[in-house]
């Protein structure tokens, strides 16, 4: 006969599959959050990034001063195909190696041609992504966490896609970002400058209510009310403090990780980051994206794709212009066949 402790252990072991099967049907959805193995991996990465940032936060003075080290920009490439504009980006980065880092999150289900040069060895541990799902949020958070761990000098984090092209020189971009700090925190030996993030944050988008209810009625409550819900561009440039706020977040992620019932209004990556940073530190954000996108004639959630006949010097100059005091840094979407044309007109 089995001993009593052994029988109890055996019974508990057999009951675990039943628990996982029936619990979602018994417990309220808002109080039941099993962590998937992928999420456990991500949480470990985010924890290491938080610890790394706590133990290594160099005091950085403006690059215009004499104190080293100089701050860096981390370029985060989110891609599900080959990086078509590698030669253009190579020219953009040339001669500025001490001032930037590159990190690439590629969909592991896609076979890519490994880029060389400054892109060599810059792929991070990646996972599969899908449209209309929170996987694009997870991929971006992995990029941010990896960049935070990799180099404490990374102070700005620029998220771009494989279809993005730079509209200005690296020096213009670097000087623009680090030119005007919002505040400065002084110590006995140095000054820590605080800069603003460039992320689009909109509260008056026409389909805002449909987007808010994409997961079902009242699902976002109580963490996110409709009055707090925001939308914006998928691509942004965040400061280090805001990048840390993103990877530390658990409360809002529990809502935005839920599957959408209405996939036509489901763009989690355009909702999560604007909502989180609006609630965390709206004054520290420009509420404006530095990535130009043309939504004229958009189809199935995709913006206008520029053709060879459209590319000219006039187009590049026009894409730089904005309705605010900010100048656009990047533009999308450009097809891979436009490399020569875009490179010829960019300056």
UniProtKB/TrEMBL annotation:
Any one GO MF annotation of this record: glycosyltransferase activity
Domain of life according to the entry: Eukaryota
GO cellular component labels: membrane
Subcellular location field: Membrane
One Pfam family per UniProt: Branch
Record's signal peptide: 1-21
This protein's record includes keyword Transferase: yes
Keywords in alphabetical order: Glycoprotein, Glycosyltransferase, Membrane, Signal, Transferase
Recorded topology in the membrane: Single-pass type II membrane protein
Annotated protein name in UniProt: Core-2/I-branching beta-1,6-N-acetylglucosaminyltransferase family protein
